[in-house]
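Journal club prep, notes for RB
We'll compare a predicted complex against what the paper describes. Inputs for the S-adenosylmethionine case:
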Amino acid sequence: MRFERQREEMVSRQIESRGIENPRVLEAMRRVPRHLFVSEALRDQAYGDYPLPIGEQQTISQPYIVAEMTAALDLTPDDRVLELGTGSGYQAAVLAEIAFRVYTIERIYALYARARKIFDQLHYHNIVTRYGDGTTGWPEEAPFDAIIVTAGAPQLPKPLLDQLAVGGRMVLPIGDRRTQDLVKVVREKEGFRQISLGGCRFVKLMGEYGWKY
Ligand code: SAM
């Protein structure tokens, strides 16, 4: 009950009040128990207006950023979505509430294993997980209707562009190691359209098409 009330307040005060109106996103964030995706010691802060540490020097993003990126993907219930950077698993769960299937990749084994366990406990049977470098995408399952990258990339990873369906949407932070621009890329019949959604700050996307160190 306590967490339900906090979750409701999170959605109305941090997300709706800042202009996110997509009912699918709001409903998904009302449903996913964010406090179960952080360590017990941080549960009381789980619905706060900030990112939190999840171990391995990584973070669970601020609720508003999760909402903004999810809304930018314009998801429908038939969509198949690729996520890079499973982390705590929270963003994947939000996506799974809306989309048909979520494919999520994490390069740190401990985080991958923990998220997999939570997905099973919460019966998210439409989340498929993989351990490894996500910057090469998931070619066997491509093309995707939507791709979300939850770590900061130095540039658009080429394999992800190739794995985006025509009409598909991708959202990712691009920039230097400290600050990035949140970018939305839409694949059109001929070529790609790119829109800037504003500044943001993410941990680094490491890997073959990300940062090397
Ligand atoms: N989406 C996560 C959540 O809801 O908790 C937050 C992700 S955290 C900001 C970024 C994650 O991206 C980290 O867990 C990090 O290990 C992961 N990561 C960084 N580079 C990656 C790569 N090349 N492939 C897969 N995961 C990567």
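Talking point for the session: The pocket of S-adenosylmethionine is lined by residues 58-61, 84-85, 87-88, 90-91, 105-108, 111, 133-135, 150-151, 202-203, 205-207, 210 (CB under 6 Å).
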